[in-house]
Amino acid sequence: MNNGTYAIELQNLNCYYETFRAVKDVNLQVKRNRITAFIGPSGCGKSTVLRAINRMNDLIPGARVEGQVLFKGQNLYDPAVDPVEVRRRIGMVFQKPNPFPKSIYENVAWGARINGFKGNMDELVEQSLREAALWDEVKDKLHQSGLSLSGGQQQRLCIARAIAIRPEIILMDEPASALDPIATLKIEDLMRELVKNYTIIIVTHNMQQAARVSDYTAFFMMDRADRAGMLVEFNETGKIFTNPTDRRTEDYITGRFG
Asked: pLDDT at position 1, please?
């Protein structure tokens, strides 16, 4: 039973695309107000697991899930659960910045508006942009297109858009892989700030990033026998990077395979 310590609990999670099992038997407990990183080679199921947490895989024809994803003790795959509500409580930031072709203001306001926000929209937009460390850069051009911003600014705008609907968890799928090193560090600094109020789960190919920014790290790899992604090891980030218990984790982190 969820005692409030965990934001998300995965129990025997298996993810399928048609008949192919992409991820098998993942058991994982994600702590609240911490940053958890998913690392591992390409094709090992990291993003599939991430997208299973807020039911984004539902949008892919033929995708299905077995096992449980528990949020506040409730299985998010229970037939009574509304996936739209799941995505409101568990926001997502994608690999490539994807602002709407609208003004900066409307990018932030849009999600709140369609979710029925009745408060002061100007205040919400400002607060969300401040939380995303973008307000000072855009406060004089709120009515310019979000697409006019730099890549790093666009990604922070997408983070502002995600937090404007006040989720409890933010999922980030390689949020800095399309950005230059300076913009990447800004996103990392922002994550450390946001985790005071949110739980963050990040998929990253950048092991230095995982080591720098996360509190916990989950290492995934593909089972060569059936090509399903599996969780090899999960622990505090410091232990994963300095004293892993599984030889495969050590081999990956030290660059001996992957």
From this structure: 41
